[in-house]
Amino acid sequence: MAHPSLKAAFEAGRFVVAPGIFDMISARVADGMGFTSLYATGFGTVASHLGVADAGIATYTDMVGRVGAFARGCRTPVVADADTGYGGLLNVRHTVMGYEAAGVTGIQLEDQEMPKKCGHTPGRRVIPAEEMVLKIKVAAEARRDPNMLIVARTDARTTLGLEEAIRRGQLYADAGADVIFIESPETEAEMQAIGKAIRKPLLANMVEGGRTPILPARRLAEIGYAMAIYPAVGFLAVAAALERVYGHLKEQGDSNALPASDSYGFGRICELMGFPEVWEFDRKWAQPEGK
């Protein structure tokens, strides 16, 4: 079931910062930190699950199980990337219904051609705006819970320019999207223009090393944004940490000299993943020896 708290945050004007989650360890860590929402990143989820590029290779079946695990395993509302809806209008309907049944609170749909490409990378092309308008209308009709939010993303800025991206954002808002996501504005001035032109809650995609400047949450709120996602911050940090500790292991032949700061701690990870409950269950139902 979708969490009403995220919609309420937007209605109350509270700015939402959402870290990217990509596997259940990242989801559990983020879930315990008091965020208003979590963002199930397509790039990170595809990379961790399939080990391939986020380039339209993952299917609906690949993704719905993963985002469902995130939603079931977290108390925090999850907004999940659903690419293009994995096909035409009937596919979009099926995807929205499936993601809602899986327990996510928001579904992100984009206007790229299939196969899609990751945002902030070259070669992205978009479908006609009118086709995406129909997808959004189908998505809005398909959801059952009014707390289930539809995030409409346009990738038009990179190939068709800012004016067309803003026009599409306005069309998608009118079609029934709850949150508008204009991907890859390239300057703060462009972001300000978007903030002035779009009346629905706006999402900013803060990608380290990407095309869009990373602005503080306070500044984003000042120029008209309601939410910022940080899809890559987690998996970039994890990859760097793994490279560091694996390199140490390869060079030294053991892990004894690793700094304590490089380890989450075995006890903490057991607690994070729910082992105390398992141990309590075992104690409760332990059978006497020989029985």
TrEMBL record:
Gene3D superfamilies: Phosphoenolpyruvate-binding domains. SUPFAM superfamilies: Phosphoenolpyruvate/pyruvate domain (SSF51621). The chain crosses the membrane at residues 223-242. The keyword Cell membrane does not apply. GO terms for molecular function: lyase activity. Keywords: Lyase, Membrane, Transmembrane, Transmembrane helix. It comes from the Bacteria. This is 2-Methylisocitrate lyase, PEP mutase family. It comes from Belnapia rosea.
